[in-house]
Structure formats: C-alpha cells, structure tokens
C-alpha cells in the first residue's frame, strides 16, 4: 500500500538562498587563498564567511535541525580559519605544552561542532520524532 500523505516541504526564501550562495563564494575564496598562500585575501575572507554563517544560523534558529547543522558550520569555519592562520604565521608546527602543535588547537571548534550535531542526533531529533514524526527534517 502506497503512502498518500504528502511529504513536508522545506522551502528557502530567495533572499536567504542568495546569501547562502554568496557564503559559498566567500568560503571558496578563503580556502583558495589558503591553498595559494595569499595571506591578505585569505584572512580578509574570514570575516564575511564567518559572519554569513552566523546570519544563516540565526535565520534558521526556529528549525532545530537546520540550526544544529548551521552552528556546526560556524564552528567548522572557525576551526578552518584558525588552522589557516596558524599556517600563514608559521605557528602550526610549534609545540604547545610539549603535547600538541598550534594547528591542533583547531580541534576545539571542530569538537564543538561535533558536539552540537551529537546533541541534535542523540537528544533533540529523537524527541522531535516522538512528538511529530511526519514533520521532522531528515538528512
């Protein structure tokens, strides 16, 4: 028997989509600059890339799934930007406390992003499914 219940639709307003597309441009410019060791451009792209990621997270705050994933992106960009700076200014291989290098500190925001997603998938999503299984955003 076929399910006749229509699948929920997730629509993005055009203005939100435009800023998301602009975000991708800034992010790529930042990472290409990192790859090519264009310090000034790479560092200057951190602010718009991170700012737009925060704006996107704020705009999607009413959708728990979107908020979790967008916060993870904010932490990812933060970690990625720190790592880029550590390489640009050559403290990426400097030992800190004899245990880790400068670039390894990027694990802090990477871990925060993973924790946000772990909370969403292990705590929040199961609660949503229990309440309204047909209205939960999925992967």
Average pLDDT across residues? 92
What is the overall number of helices? 5
Q: What is the strand content?
A: under 5%
Silhouette: flat
Low-confidence stretches: none
Overall strand count: 2
Q: Structural class of the secondary elements?
A: mainly alpha
Q: Strand order within the widest sheet? A: 1-2
Q: What value does the Rg take, in angstroms?
A: 19 Å
Tell me roughly what share of residues is in helical segments. Answer: 55-70%
Q: Biggest β-sheet: count, sense, barrel?
A: 2 strands, antiparallel
- Termini separation comes to 25 Å
Q: What order do the SSEs take from the amino end to the carboxyl end, as H and E?
A: HHHHEEH
Q: How many discrete structural domains?
A: 1
Keywords: Membrane, Transmembrane, Transmembrane helix
What would you say about this model in short?
The chain is mainly α and 139 residues long. The chain is 67% helix and 3% strand.
Describe, in plain words, how this protein is organized in 3D.
The chain is mainly α. It has one domain. The chain has five helices and two strands; from the N terminus they run ααααββα. The protein has helices at 14-36, 39-44, 46-59, 64-88, 107-131, and strands at 95-96, 100-101. The protein has a two-stranded antiparallel ribbon. β1 (95-96) and β2 (100-101) form a beta hairpin. α4 runs antiparallel to α5. It is flat and about 60 Å long. The chain crosses the membrane at residues 36-58, 67-85, 105-123.
